[in-house]
Every structure is written in C-alpha cells, then in structure tokens.
C-alpha cells in the first residue's frame, strides 16, 4: 500500500525555467510533509518541509504547495539550475506514528543548460 | 558530511550469508531509522529505535533484525541473504522527541550486493 506516490519517474527542464514536482498521498493522518534531494552515491538531504496547517512554504528558489483537500503537494523550483539535477523524494509523517517518514518512489529531475 | 556514519560503504557477499551494517547517528540524536532502497525504488522504512528501544517497525523481513546500543549506535543484521536483498541500506537519525517536522539526517548508505 503506497501511502505516498510520485507518479512521474522523471522530469526534464531547461535551465532558468520552472521545475514542478508532484506528490500525492492517501493517509489523512499525515501532518508534515518534506522534500528530500538525493545525488548519486550520497544519502538524501533535506530540502524543505510544510505543516498540514499551511498551504505554502518558501525557501529561496524552492516553494512547496499543499492542497489538503486533494491530498496533493508540489515542489516548485524557480529558476532551475543544472546543479538541481538529482532525484527528489517526497515524504510524509504523522505525529502519532513516532514521526517515521514514509517516502515516495522519487522523481529524477534533469536540468539542461 | 551529514554527521551520520555508515559502514561499510560497499559489501559483496553470497546467498545464504549473514552481514551486519553499522550506523553512528549524528551527535545528540536519539532516534535511528533504517531504510532500504532497492533498484529504482523509493526508500522503504524498515525500523526505528529511540534511545535504545524499538519504536516502530515497517516492512522488515523476519531474516532482518536491528538493535540500538547504549552509545546510540545501531546495527542492522541481515541473515540468510537472498539475491533480492541487494539494495542500498540507509541509516538516518533525528533528535525529534515531540511534535514538528521530523527532519531525518541520512548517512551515505551501505550498498549490499548479494551474488
């Protein structure tokens, strides 16, 4: 049972344009959502998070939007840079679940010059 | 360097064997999590420890076991290995004790190849 889904395995974007990565979830008990970035041969690194009481959180070029009614969140990267090329994982947690993170399958982003 | 140390980085072994993966959490973090990433798949949660006690279990096989020691380092033991156990195994740690976004800090992973 996949509680967190990233339906696009890959995304290709031109440098300077917007990258939009999508994530859907099924468990209405999730109250925190996080995005991680992973480069080859490295562990995932935390990028940005959002609480379920908010619908938007921004950090520099990265913005996460949450639509609770649709159980959908998205990560916007503006402007995209070649160094953003990586695998992006969406993750969610429920406060009552000892805060373990449930991850999606990831989306591989390629930003071309 | 994330502060989470995993050893070994690479491990090649044969079917039926047993291996132990080791993790030292970031200084001050009490929680340790183990995740498995098989080829082109997401991170599957295996197990969580908090200050030496098991807190949550995911889809961890009975052939796998883990523990967290008094010095807070953790070991993941994989036995009777099968070809399908070949994967990246990540350890992560966090200091979260209550509410809030649980930001896990991951190690670089241990790549296990079972031949």
Write the layout of secondary structure elements.
The complex is a heterodimer of chains A (113) and B (115).
Chain A: E1 4-5, E2 10-14, E3 19-25, E4 32-38, E5 45-51, E6 56-59, E7 62-67, E8 72-77, E9 86-93, E10 102-103, E11 107-112
Parallel strand pairs in A: 2-11
Antiparallel strand pairs in A: 1-3, 3-8, 4-5, 4-9, 6-7, 7-8, 9-10, 9-11
Chain B: E1 5-7, E2 10-13, E3 19-24, E4 31-37, E5 43-50, E6 53-57, E7 64-68, E8 74-78, E9 87-94, E10 105-106, E11 110-114
Parallel strand pairs in B: 2-11
Antiparallel strand pairs in B: 1-3, 3-8, 4-5, 4-9, 5-6, 7-8, 9-10, 9-11
Explain what the structure shows.
- The complex is a heterodimer of chains A (113) and B (115).
- Chain A is mostly beta strands and 113 residues long.
- Chain A is built from no helices and eleven strands.
- In chain A, the strands form two sheets. In chain A, strands 2, 4, 5, 9, 10 and 11 form a six-stranded mixed beta sheet that branches. Chain A has a five-stranded antiparallel beta sheet with strand order 1-3-8-7-6, with no helix packed on it.
- The radius of gyration of chain B is 13 Å and the shape is globular.
- The model of chain B has no long low-confidence stretch (mean pLDDT 92).
- Helix content of chain B is 0%, strand content 50%.
- Chain B is mainly beta and 115 residues long.
- In chain B, strand 5 and strand 6 (53-57) form a beta hairpin.
- Chain B has strands at residues 5-7, 10-13, 19-24, 31-37, 43-50, 53-57, 64-68, 74-78, 87-94, 105-106, 110-114.
- Classes of the chains: A mainly beta (113), B mainly beta (115).
- The A-B interface holds A 4, 6, 9, 32, 34, 36, 41-46, 49, 51, 89, 93, 95, 97-106 and B 2, 4, 31, 33, 35, 40-45, 48, 50, 55-56, 58, 90, 92, 94, 96, 99-109.
């Amino acid at each position: 049972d996949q509680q967190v889904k990233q339906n696009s395995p890959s995304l290709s974007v031109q440098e300077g344009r917007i990258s939009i990565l999508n994530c859907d979830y099924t468990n209405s008990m999730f109250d925190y959502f996080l995005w991680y970035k992973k480069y080859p041969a490295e562990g995932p690194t935390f990028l940005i998070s959002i609480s379920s009481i908010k619908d938007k959180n921004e950090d520099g070029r990265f913005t996460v939007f949450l639509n609770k009614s649709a159980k959908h969140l998205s990560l916007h990267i503006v402007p995209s840079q070649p160094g953003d090329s990586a695998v992006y994982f969406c993750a969610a947690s429920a406060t009552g679940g000892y805060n373990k993170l449930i991850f999606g399958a990831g989306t591989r982003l390629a930003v071309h010059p | 360097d994330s502060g989470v140390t995993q050893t070994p980085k690479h491990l090649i072994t044969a079917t039926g064997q047993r291996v132990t993966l080791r993790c030292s959490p970031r200084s001050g973090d009490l929680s340790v999590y183990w995740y498995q990433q098989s080829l082109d798949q997401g991170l599957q949660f295996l197990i969580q420890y908090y200050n030496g006690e098991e807190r949550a279990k995911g889809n961890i096989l009975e052939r796998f076991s883990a523990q967290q020691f008094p010095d807070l380092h953790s070991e993941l033991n994989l036995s009777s290995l099968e070809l399908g156990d070949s994967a990246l195994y990540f350890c992560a740690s966090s200091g979260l004790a209550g509410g809030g976004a649980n930001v896990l800090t991951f190690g670089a992973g241990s790549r296990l190849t079972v031949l």
